[in-house]
């Protein structure tokens, strides 16, 4: 199956700062992808590049086999629920559905009506009067009833309370199950992603740290605790993601595809939260080294 | 997309419609009465209006004086209207979608940005031009008796009357709207965009009559001898300093230069210095004005007049409209390019 999102050396620079650098991705179709990373890591930038709202400064990006927002066909393939779920505050819920119906050839009005009823939105209500959760649901309805091949959601639940958050994710997952649709959703909270996604992209400090099948990733990451030692003695197939040392003890978080055989390590499996945190810490320590390198030059 | 644009634009359109209706009601209620007053008054006054000192002239002057506030009000309205369209319809057209982030919603429906922009620009732009055109039509109908008074200070070709008569208003509306849209795209925030639009539009409207409009066609130059008919303004001091100016041959023309030259053709500045003999003779305290005017002619003074005659009114209107509509189209083309390249 062809990839739903493919990025090659993709980068986006704003006037001063690279928001995304050297991003290489190959996301297979039919997955629910979680894009995780701290605030300001470049998640929104990546998703805006994927929807064609932004154009790349470097490299290329292809979504569903074409350049984002290149033409009507391409626009039909991708749905986007942007950050804060923007809607037309002056228009009614009904008007939004009209808009979706008239502007999307593959629009499924049954799905839209059914969803609106299930969520309990009043079609005559002005969108500006909706609660945050209702507004997100309305935006999601527009995205889903468009029946795209890929639905992209940028921090869809960030502004919602825990209950609305769960309802939103639940209704999203129901729709994904009903329709054959790939999903990419971003969040700065691992817990949002943990239950719903089967593919993970960790984005820290404008770079993709790791991307892959969720289960595989979880199976490949370990915490090693043992007597203090130099990390250069670690086998080459064990990629160190973060390390910490006390006088007597060394703790490593590593990624490896083979088993850890060294008996001096106490090996534990990592949860998703730990994996993501490890990459965030790892990125931080390399960033702290940078000034020293500059001094040496 | 047309339906959505209309929904978004509805409130603004209703305000404009209500304002037009109010304007139509006020002008309609007073306009026909005023036109009747003018026709009846003119007939009653009698006399030859070509004669500078006649009852006809007096009536027309008084008639204008009586209605001058309404007259000035309509001029102000038509000068402001295109700016208002640029400010309230042009500038927010894109910035509001950026500020409320609805751009992220609409650009992810199955519609290209070109079509989205084309519909918005056409619907709202045409509405703006229509509003300006209807307002101009109403006002031009209402002021037609006042325009006929040919008040010297308000020539129809002049910098303040010309832009409020005929086609030009529609061109300004198109330009102001497109300017607002483009400034909005560049600035991305509604309030600063409105302020900049107003400044730029005002600057263009001031620059046009000062630098551009006088050159649509080479102006007519005339060296005039003074007659009792053409002297517009005559001032004479005890010591023989004299100031003269003349009217152009056709009323309503736009006088660009009005200066006195001596027999050698050199400009004399503000005042002619009359010789003592003239002050003792034809221009003396007891003399008639005709004799003094004749004496000034005899001394070789002439009035040099450079002007755009009223006969060119519609030619100039079409040129003005063409320039502003052309600018609007150019700005529109730029906005399509910008939307593709770098709006967000």
List the SSEs and their pairings.
The complex is a heterodimer of chains A (297) and B (344).
Chain A: E1 3-13, E2 18-28, E3 32-36, H1 43-50, E4 58-63, H2 72-77, E5 78-81, H3 93-103, H4 109-119, H5 132-145, E6 150-153, H6 162-178, E7 182-187, H7 190-194, E8 199-204, E9 207-213, H8 214-220, E10 221-227, E11 239-245, E12 249-255, E13 266-269, H9 272-296
Parallel strand pairs in A: 3-7, 3-8, 5-6, 6-7
Antiparallel strand pairs in A: 1-2, 1-4, 8-9, 10-12, 10-13, 11-12
Helix pairs in contact in A: 4-5, 5-6
Chain B: H1 2-45, H2 55-90, H3 92-99, H4 103-106, H5 113-148, H6 168-187, H7 190-212, E1 220-224, E2 231-236, E3 241-246, E4 254-261, E5 272-273, H8 276-280, H9 289-298, E6 302-308, H10 313-341
Antiparallel strand pairs in B: 1-6, 2-3, 3-5, 4-6
Describe the protein's architecture and organization.
The complex is a heterodimer of chains A (297) and B (344). With 297 residues, chain A is α/β, with parallel strands linked by helices. Chain A is 35% helix and 29% strand. Chain A has helices at residues 43-50, 72-77, 93-103, 109-119, 132-145, 162-178, 190-194, 214-220, 272-296; strands at residues 3-13, 18-28, 32-36, 58-63, 78-81, 150-153, 182-187, 199-204, 207-213, 221-227, 239-245, 249-255, 266-269. Chain A has a six-stranded mixed sheet, sandwiched between helices. Chain B is mainly alpha-helical and 344 residues long. In chain B, the strands form two sheets. Chain B has a three-stranded antiparallel sheet, with no helix packed on it. In chain B, helix 1 (2-45) packs antiparallel against helix 2, helix 1 (2-45) packs parallel to helix 5 and helix 5 (113-148) packs antiparallel against helix 6. The two termini of chain B are 21 Å apart. The mean pLDDT of chain B is 91. The chains are: A alpha/beta (297), B mainly alpha (344). Chains A and B meet through helix 2, strand 5, helix 3 and helix 5 of A and helix 1 and helix 4 of B.
